[in-house]
Amino acid sequence: MQTVVFWVLAVAAVGFGVAVFVVDSMARATFALLASFLCVGGELLLLDLNYLGVLVVLMMIMEMLVMAVFMIMYMMNPGGLMPMTMVHNRRAALTISIAVFAAMAAGVLLTPWPHRRGAVPHDPAFSLGEAIMGPKMLVMMVIGIAILATMIGSVVLATDRGRYDRPPGRDGGAA
Amino acid sequence: MNLQVFLLLAAALFAVGLYGALSQQSIVMVMMGLELMINGILVAGAAFWFHIAPGTADGQVLVLVAVTVMALEMAMGFAVVTALFRSRDVDVTDEAGDLRG
Questions:
Q1: Looking at the partner chain, which of B13, B24, B60 has a beta carbon nearest the beta carbon of A49?
Q2: Whole-number pLDDT of residue B86
Q3: Which of these ranges, A51-65, A66-80, A139-153, B49-63, has the smallest mean pLDDT?
Q4: Does residue A173 register a pLDDT over 60?
Q5: Is A105 within 8 Å of A112 (Cβ atoms)?
Q6: B83 sits in which H/E element
Q7: Is A38 within 8 Å of chain B by CB?
Q8: For residue A78, which phi and psi values (nearest 5 degrees)?
Q9: How close is the nearest chain A Cα to the Cα of B24, in Å?
Q10: What's the domain range around A26?
Q11: Which of A14, A98, A95, A28 is closest to A67 using CA atoms?
Q12: E strand or H helix at B42
């Protein structure tokens, strides 16, 4: 049963991933990416990572909805009413990515992976919480600072005003 | 399912994302490619945790970091696109090659 679910989710995850770059509309591409993320969330659930799996599912739904808004803001052809290809250097990109996949697959299959050490804890979310509040607290602190820096940085980048407010004479800036 | 099939899935997701990041012209689509690559890392991190060292939470912490990186990447990416679009009306990579070395 688990094997069937794994393969269905795996094929769907990769298939939706390919669909992101094949479909004609930006909005459809966004939702294909969302579907791919949901499949990966399902794979995490298969690995007993209930908390992280649900976290990925919830976070990605929010993230992709935000992304869909941006898509429609910036992109021509958000609805896919006409065929669209916006690619450059397609053949080289295809070659590189196939070569990278082949190299990684060879590594995966040829590496003698170590045997499993330890057992899956009764409650993986509990051990994760203990880790980030104990020995791995530095990771959590760095993540927190990074999130703060991103909030400040993205607002500074996205705002229309510079250090001296708006350029003179524009949108009510002092002339 | 053993470790290898999970890692193959991760490699496939990473390769598809790499193709997108290399080939797409629109900056937002490039970011989608990057997200797919990080998606592969999520699978690989979780599989390593489950199949190699489930006793410690290191793998789970790695997945947590990857999820955070994904969200931050998207936020900063959109901020950069917004700044670029505001100043130049540009949303494709070919017209933003100022740093080309």
A1: B60
A2: 81
A3: A66-80
A4: no
A5: no
A6: helix B58-88
A7: no
A8: -65, -25
A9: 5
A10: 1-80
A11: A28
A12: helix B27-51
Query: What is the CATH number for B26?
Result: 1.10.287.3510
Asked whether residue A173 is assigned to any structural domain, the reply reads: no
The β-bridge partners of B92 are B26
Contact B82, B37 (CB under 8 A): no
Q: Distance from B77 to chain A by nearest Cα, in Å? A: 8
Residue A72 falls within a domain, yes or no?
Answer: yes
pLDDT over threshold 60, residue A164: yes
Give the domain extent around B83. 3-89
Indicate which of A120, A137, A154 best probes the interface with B, i.e. most B CBs within 10 Å of its own CB. A154
Distance CA A57, CA A43 (A): 11
Its pTM stands at: 0.88
Decide if pLDDT at A36 tops 60: yes
Q: Which residues contact A60 (CB under 8 A, 6 or more apart)?
A: A34, A37, A38, A41
Question: Among residues of chain B, what percentage have pLDDT more than 90?
Answer: 52
pLDDT of residue B90: 76
Copy the structure tokens of residue A59: 């976070």
**In the prediction, which pLDDT does B99 show?**
79
Q: Is residue A98 part of a domain?
A: no
| ipTM (interface predicted TM) | 0.89
Taking the Cβ of residue A134 and every Cβ of chain B, the question of whether any pair is shorter than 8 Å is answered with no
Mean pLDDT over the full length of chain A: 85
Calpha distance B56→A122 (Å, rounded): 12
Task: Check residue A9 and give its pLDDT.
Answer: 93
